[in-house]
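Q: Structure tokens for this one, please.
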Amino acid sequence: MVNIVRGLFVVLLAAFGVVFGKDYAKANKEGKLDDASFAKSGITGFVTDFFDTLGIGSFAPTIAMSKALKINIPDKIMPGTLNVAHTIPVVVEALIFTTVIEVESLTLISLIGAAVLGSYIGAGIISKMDERVLQLIMGLALAVTAVLMFLAHPRVNLMPGGGDAIGLSGINLILGIIGNFILGALMTAGIGLYSPCMAMVYFLGMSPDVAFPIMMGSCAMLMPVASMKFVKEGAYSRKASLAISIFGVLGVFAAAFFVNNMPMDLLKAVVVVVIAYTSFTMLKAASKKKDSVELERA
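A: Here is the predicted structure, written as tokens:
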């Protein structure tokens, strides 16, 4: 069953590759390539997808680095560039981690399917909710999770938590499906799936490394379809996307080797840091939006 999922990853990747390749070749032939820096984009791709493979995410870091390095990607096409540029690295991540990390087939397929359905069915509902409130709730929830996971870490051992299971069954499987459905829907509001998925996996008693194939597999199913739409509309930076894709894949392989050889205690510590960092960024974003609203009212 897992091989079928990997097969779908490959099919989606191939379809995206054809669409992306044709569009780039056509733009190059017609002299319509943008003036984004290929070298700076390549550096950005390696760094951001390295850390994406560790579960930190790539979108926010890419925006930050593109501004700092002055890559010259207009804000108007930034969303399309983020999706197109990171699609190939994310699919590679999913292929690697569904191969090197063992997850029960039913759990993997159910949770990936739930996230995909959530991103489509739940999009209409989530998109109408206040983004600042969502960020505030998720930020606080992740902060509590980070604290609890820190206290449960083997080196601290102040409370029980987590587990070594590679799959879910019964009520926990149902909770996992519902949880990933919600997380898939929240992606439409700009809230990343990685850290919340790590937290959910932890509380359902699974091993922390099981989160990697689940969260990356979920995004690998979503991003190629969304990215093909951006490509067809021309709403992305072609040069930056190609450079980030190429060097991002190299970053993925470097990080995957690092994660695969990481001691479990260290991996758990990394997960705690990732969740705490995401909590901070969400709360900071929510605070900025509150300040901007108050200024507008004033």
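A few notes: Residues 2-287 form one domain. The first helix runs from residue 2 to 29.
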